[in-house]
């Protein structure tokens, strides 16, 4: 096929790609670029693969010349030529370049990139090139995500994850599951988002030398948004278990138990946070946590512990900022009255 096409090219008086490459070597990019566009146009019908190469070469030259408009235009041309070849991976690259470099029609181009990367992934699966397939599906998912097509993004991240799990590629598994969780969050599907944030965290902490993942905390936040406070508390406790700074997880879990009416659990967890803060010489944090304990439990042990703590001067601004953060946490968990009481 290649020899036949080359013969037809010579008979038609058109230079082959190799001949044209030699003619343009050494030309400045602003001169060579248009020549490669003409070469590509002349080969669109006879040799679409050469046309694809010509437009791609032109795009690279216009990029060197700093001509962004032509860089985008020729990237779209090689993307469309690649679809005809077909070479779906290169087509995806071309549409992605166009999307990354323009605001106008960016979503459309991201969607086309996703469509082509998905086809490239499917071809790689058929050829049993599983690593390449996983990469192409991940690229498709990322492109669909940028196009705002979150359901499509989830589908392709899941395809990538399925392959990575079989190959025990835990880094890819963890990354893709975190992305799935984020896209469910964008769809306001908080239960599925939390489910995949937990999977993301488990995949991360299941790797050697990885001792912490923010996936547990993010799962807790998603459960809170979905109104599932008991599971949110469990996720926050997991976060505290794996973190060198357990206070955030302990406090958020305690706030969930406060909304659930379990004051004994609230007191237990907040006292744990206080002891951790005091051990790290953060008296101002311990004092604010105890103030939280006062509005959630009204237990005399809290007042007694608060009297033992001396906050050094100069921490007023930091204390106020932490109090505001805790108030926001309470509001997120439906404890508006307690947030108001904390601010008094």
Structure description:
It contains 19 helices and no strands. With 344 residues, it is an all-alpha fold. The chain has a domain at 274-344. Helix 16 (283-297) packs parallel to helix 18 (316-332). The radius of gyration is 29 Å and the shape is elongated. It starts with a helix and ends with a helix. The relative contact order is 0.04. The model is unreliable at 1-7 (pLDDT under 50).
The unreliable regions are: 1-7
What is the number of helices? 19
Distance between the termini: 82 Å
Compute the average pLDDT.
92
Q: Describe the largest sheet.
A: none
State the order of secondary-structure elements, H for helix, E for strand: HHHHHHHHHHHHHHHHHHH
Strand content: under 5%
Key words describing this protein structure:
single chain; 344 residues; mainly alpha; 19 helices; 0% strand; elongated; disordered N terminus
List the helices and strands and how they pair.
Layout: H1 2-11, H2 17-24, H3 29-42, H4 48-65, H5 68-84, H6 88-100, H7 106-126, H8 130-146, H9 150-166, H10 170-186, H11 190-205, H12 215-225, H13 229-242, H14 247-260, H15 263-279, H16 283-297, H17 300-308, H18 316-332, H19 336-343
């Amino acid at each position: 096929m290649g020899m036949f096409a080359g013969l037809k090219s010579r008979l038609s008086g058109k230079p082959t790609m190799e001949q044209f490459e030699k003619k343009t070597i050494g030309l400045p990019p602003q001169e060579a670029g248009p020549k490669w566009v003409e070469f590509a146009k002349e080969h669109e019908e006879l040799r679409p693969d050469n046309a694809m190469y010509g437009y791609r070469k032109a795009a690279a030259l216009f990029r060197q010349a700093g001509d962004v408009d032509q860089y985008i235009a020729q990237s779209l041309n090689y993307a469309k030529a690649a679809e005809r070849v077909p070479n779906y991976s290169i087509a995806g690259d071309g549409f992605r370049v166009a999307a990354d470099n323009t605001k106008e029609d960016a979503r459309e181009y991201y969607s086309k990139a996703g469509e082509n990367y998905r086809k490239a992934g499917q071809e790689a699966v058929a050829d049993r090139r599983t690593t390449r397939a996983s990469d192409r599906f991940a690229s498709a998912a990322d492109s669909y995500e940028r196009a705002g097509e979150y359901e499509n993004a989830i589908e392709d991240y899941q395809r990538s994850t399925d392959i990575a799990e079989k190959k025990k590629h835990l880094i890819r598994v963890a990354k893709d599951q975190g992305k799935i969780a984020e896209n469910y969050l964008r769809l306001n599907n908080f239960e599925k988002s939390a489910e995949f944030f937990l999977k993301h965290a488990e995949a991360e902490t299941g790797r050697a030398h990885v001792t912490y993942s923010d996936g547990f905390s993010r799962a807790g936040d998603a459960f809170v948004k979905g109104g599932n406070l008991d599971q949110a508390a469990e996720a926050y406790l997991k976060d505290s278990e794996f973190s060198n700074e357990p206070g955030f997880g302990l406090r958020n879990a305690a706030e969930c138990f406060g909304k659930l009416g379990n004051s004994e659990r609230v007191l237990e967890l907040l006292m744990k946070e206080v002891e951790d803060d005091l051990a790290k010489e953060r008296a101002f944090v311990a004092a604010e946590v105890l103030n939280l304990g006062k509005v959630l439990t009204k237990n005399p042990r809290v007042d007694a512990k608060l009297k033992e703590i001396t906050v050094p001067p100069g921490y007023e601004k930091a204390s106020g900022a932490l109090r505001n953060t805790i108030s926001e946490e309470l509001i997120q968990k439906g404890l508006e009255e307690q947030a108001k009481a904390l601010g008094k």
